[in-house]
Amino acid sequence: MAEVKISCPKCDWEPTPADVWQCTCGHVWHTFDTAGRCPSCSKQWEETCCHEPAAGGCGRWSPHMEWYRNLDGWLKEEIEKIRIRVAETIG
Q1: What is the pTM of this model?
Q2: Among the four residues 19, 48, 52, 76, which has the most C-beta atoms within 10 Å?
Q3: Residue 37 forms beta bridges with which residues?
Q4: Which residues contact 65 (CB under 8 A, 6 or more apart)?
Q5: Strand ranges inside 1-91, DSSP E
């Protein structure tokens, strides 16, 4: 199974489940639990800031989707699973 890895596209820092971000509305949450959408105000963050160097990151902003690594492999596997289910259904 293809493993989707989450890491900063600029410095490869990998957030842990304990790492959190703060929305402009003040809500604090783990942005990768919701693909960058604030669960409080529903703002969709198109970019995500890496944590500061003191926390191991680089402090720079990158498009949120660029943080997800190996999405192509995961998507191909999911499409193949769907094809198999469809074939079994009509087969």
Answers
A1: 0.77
A2: 48
A3: 44
A4: none
A5: 5-6, 21-22, 28-29, 47-49, 61-63, 68-69
Cβ-contact 26, 17 below 8 angstroms: no
Please report, for the chain, the start and end positions of each structural domain, with discontinuous segments joined by +. 20-90
**Region at 69 (left for phi over 0; alpha for psi -120 to 50; beta for the rest):** beta
How far apart, in whole angstroms, are the C-alpha atoms of residue 46 and residue 44?
6
Gap between the terminal Cα atoms of the chain: 25
Q: What is the pLDDT of residues 60-82, one digit of tens each?
A: 999 999 999 988 888 888 888 89
